[in-house]
């Protein structure tokens, strides 16, 4: 029996995409090539991996069991390639990373300062795309590393490491009518304009309850914060970002009547493409960011 990495890659991709055609597009192969690879793999193993009787291929019991082995082998291959690349001492001329707008700069500033000293001749490009755009850019390797609020699901080609959480609170300007010194009800919130950070629309834990009929959608947290300061509405914002912008004297956290003991938290992940070969600079940056939690980075 001689199983190839190409067969295992096809197996993993089809299982992840639930489609031969989608997996073929993702891998840049023809659908027929993937079908042949899986057929040959099933012959070599003497087992049926997919039930093809329905519209979409479904893993058989044997397929589910062997998928874990296949993905473990692929992970080891990615790890070996990255280790070999690091040993070869390749040094990138530039590294591109993406950072969610919600992540306070203070959280990663010490690492970037160290990076500038360690790799003075490597250019760093920092982008702030939406989370969905960032994932696509990491998958197509136009971005090598992403720091983003946690997603419910990452594709098979992506790896992640949880860096911790950031806390959110509901705030308004100190002079806003909602700040009357007593808990605020949902009906009172709904009487005033809500400022919504567009990439988090319907994604924050409070979204199902806190949804004013009058809301403005804003793509930049910096703009949203200044709109809050000017009394244009209330919003759910990261506490650390409010502190970093030194707005905690001008903005006041609203005490919600229904949530007296609740703190809203969202996970933060470091995300990268598993197949991407990491040079010396990128390997250093990924390892350094992954060493500490967001909380410790903020207080560093």
Distance between the first and last residues' Cα: 54 Å
Assembly context of the chains: single chain
β-strand amount? 15-25%
- Gross morphology is globular
The residue-averaged pLDDT reads 84
Class inferred from helices and paired strands? alpha/beta
Biggest beta sheet attributes? 7 strands, mixed
Which radius of gyration do the C-alpha atoms yield?
Answer: 23 Å
Poorly predicted runs are 296-300
Secondary-structure element order, as H and E? HHHEEHEHEHEEHEEHEHEEHH
- Count of helical segments? 11
Pfam family, one: HTH_1
Family: Belongs to the LysR transcriptional regulatory family.
GO molecular function: DNA-binding transcription factor activity; transcription cis-regulatory region binding
Keywords: DNA-binding, Transcription, Transcription regulation
Task: Provide the fold topology.
Layout: H1 5-17, H2 20-27, H3 31-45, E1 50-51, E2 58-59, H4 61-87, E3 94-99, H5 109-118, E4 123-127, H6 131-139, E5 145-149, E6 158-173, H7 186-189, E7 194-197, E8 215-218, H8 221-229, E9 235-238, H9 239-244, E10 251-253, E11 264-273, H10 280-289, H11 294-299
Parallel strand pairs: 3-4, 3-5, 7-8
Antiparallel strand pairs: 1-2, 5-11, 6-9, 6-10, 6-11
Domain HTH lysR-type: 3-60
Organism: Yokenella regensburgei
InterPro entries: LysR_HTH_N, LysR_subst-bd, WH-like_DNA-bd_sf, WH_DNA-bd_sf
């Amino acid at each position: 029996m001689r199983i190839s990495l190409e067969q295992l890659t096809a197996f993993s991709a089809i299982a992840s995409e639930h489609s031969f055609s989608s997996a073929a597009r993702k891998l840049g192969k023809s659908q027929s090539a993937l079908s042949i690879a899986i057929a040959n793999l099933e012959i070599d193993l003497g087992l049926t991996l997919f039930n093809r009787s329905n519209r979409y291929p479904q893993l058989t019991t044997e397929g589910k069991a062997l998928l874990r082995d296949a993905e473990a082998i692929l992970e080891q291959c990615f790890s070996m390639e990255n280790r070999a690349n690091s040993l070869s001492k390749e040094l990138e001329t530039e590294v591109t990373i993406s950072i969610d707008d919600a992540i306070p700069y203070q959280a990663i500033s010490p690492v970037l300062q160290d990076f500038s000293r360690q790799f003075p001749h490597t250019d760093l490009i920092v982008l702030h795309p939406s989370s969905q755009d960032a994932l696509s850019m990491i998958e197509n390797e136009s971005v090598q590393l992403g720091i983003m609020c946690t997603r419910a699901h990452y594709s098979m080609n992506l790896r992640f490491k949880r860096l911790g959480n950031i806390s959110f609170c509901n705030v308004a300007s100190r002079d806003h009518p909602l700040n009357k010194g007593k808990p605020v009800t949902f009906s009172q919130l709904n009487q005033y304009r809500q400022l919504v950070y567009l990439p988090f629309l319907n994604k924050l834990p409070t979204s199902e309850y806190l949804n004013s009929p009058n809301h403005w959608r804003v793509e930049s947290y910096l703009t949203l914060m200044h709109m809050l300061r000017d009394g244009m509405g209330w919003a759910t914002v990261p506490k650390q970002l409010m502190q970093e912008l030194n707005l905690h004297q001008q903005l006041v956290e609203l005490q919600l009547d229904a949530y007296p003991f609740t703190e809203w938290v969202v996970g933060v992940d470091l995300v990268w493409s598993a197949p991407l070969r990491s040079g010396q600079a990128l390997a250093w940056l990924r390892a350094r960011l992954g060493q500490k939690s967001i909380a410790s980075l903020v207080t560093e």
